[in-house]
Amino acid sequence: FVTNPLLRTGYHFQPPKNWINDPNGPLYYKGWYHLFYQYNPKGADWVNTLWAHSVSRDLINWNVLGLALEPSIRSDQYGVWSGSATILLDGTPVLVYTGIDRPDTPYQVQNVAIPKNKSDPLLREWVKPDYNPIIVPDSGMNVTQFRDPSTAWHIDGQWRILVGGEKGSHGQAYVYRSTDFKHWVRAKHPLHSAINGMWECLDFFPVLMQGKKGLDTSDQSGRVKYVLKSSLEKARYDYYTIGTYNSRTERYVPDDLNGDYHRLRYDYGKFYARRVLVGWANESDTVPDDIAKGWSGIHAIPRKTWLDPGGKQLVQWPIEEVEQLRRKSVSVTNKVVKPRNHFEVKGLETYQADVEVSFEIPNLERAEPFDHAFSNDAQKLCRMKGADNKGGVGPFGLWVLASANLEEKTAVFFRIFRDGHGKPVVLMCTDPTKSSLGHDLDKPTYAGFVNADVSSSGEISLRSLIDHSVVESFGAGGRTCIISRVYPSIAVGQNAHLYVFNNGDVDVKVSRLKAWEMESSKMNN
Ligand code: DQQ
Question: Are 482 and 447 in contact (CB under 8 A)?
């Protein structure tokens, strides 16, 4: 059943076939969005990855171009791994990427590529200057954990770039500086480091303290904070901290000094790699299944990202361009869902849909007490208290990709607890444990706390982008995001249903719900 073509996505980014992982070097040039990505042109498994290239006018409809970077020089002959794009001061885009230059150990160095023809808006051909590699690891550095150069930023006449690494058990954000983008020298100490293993796909960028406008990496005007994101190689998720950056001392200090342990995440589901914000979500089936179905990996819908007015976290929302795919819709207003009850949202196909719903928060008297032992482990709490585990206030939310008799369903929901002072603690979960009757699937429950003042607003909202085998959800306007992969065996195509459920002890009111069928986008075909 995993090879059922009805499980292939309709509007999430992917090539026509084969393996993809990290988004690489997104850039905007002469009216086109360019997206590169780790790609195996020969199959649906992670071997021989290089950079494939797609372009778009709106980040939703994509055209595939030829491969952008393939192994071709001594310093990338055994692999073209992840990296970034930077636009130089004269407008020239440059790709900086990791090359593997030895056959036996993945010895890692950093290379650049520049457009062959700058007047081509599609930037179809890239050349690798003969001064490559631009950065090699110093002696004493871990040469197999030294990769994924970030977008560069320019301050006081100098470019800076980060390269991720590992020293002992500490993740490292090494800083390299250059005036000409050719000769690079490592700063004495890293920008930041913390005790949590190899840091892949580092990202470092300023965010405005007020407003939603995005900033160029070099922009220091206005009052800004900085975001440092790393992808944890072993745990396979991204986390970030928010802090301040001093370009003279070349140091970044997180505002929350324990931030590296609290680990705010872009997304509490399968979301790995980089910003527009685009992330890679891998499959949850087996490698043989991927090879049989001929494709593996998708990218999330690009997300607009800004700093929450409280300054403590980022907020993300699907770019508005995705709304052009909305077609037929249905609405529900002011509908009460009794305890242990549910209702179906009828009148549209929901295997490819966009659903926005607002729940009125009921009285919290019946809310379960919050156990602070779980303060740093939402996922564990949600594994224990899944969607079918009856609660006080909640679990309430959506069953998506559900079969008619509910033997298959993926639950996206909230559960509200009360702390010792009577304050609400909101948990958001995606529980895929009942998503499929199929075997050999990875069905991890994902969860995060939602930092939203539900007592004063009296409401909490949820948006889910459903796309055959993807459920990408945004809680409380994008304060907590969870993307997850599921593979129903019955609830596919027109057999997929959508429900609102309440497994709590008190009534929950759907103040508004609107669901749209989504058209397929043009996806690299
Ligand atoms: N995958 C790339 C690496 C990166 C890792 C190679 C993260 O450069 O560190 O495909 O998914």
Answer: yes
DSSP state of 519: P
pLDDT of residue 252 exceeding 90: yes
Domain that holds residue 129: 77-284+302-317
Q: What's the CA dihedral at 118, 123, 126, 127 to 10 degrees?
A: -10
Q: What is the pLDDT of residues 351-363, one digit of tens each?
A: 999 999 999 988 8
What's the CA-to-centroid distance between 410 and ligand 1, angstroms?
A: 29
Q: Domains in the chain: how many in total? A: 2
Where does 102-249 show beta strands of DSSP type E?
108-115, 126-127, 146-147, 153-155, 158-167, 170-178, 185-186, 192-194, 199-208, 224-232, 237-246
Is the same domain home to 432 and 495? yes
Residues 348 and 308 in one domain: no
Do 313 and 187 share a domain, yes or no? Answer: yes
Output the CA 278–ligand 1 centroid distance in Å: 15
* Ligand 1 probe mutation, 36, 81, 234, 299, most atoms within 8 A of CB: 81
Q: How far is CA 28 from CA 25, 31, 32, 39, 306, in A?
A: 10, 7, 6, 21, 19
ipTM of the predicted structure? 0.96
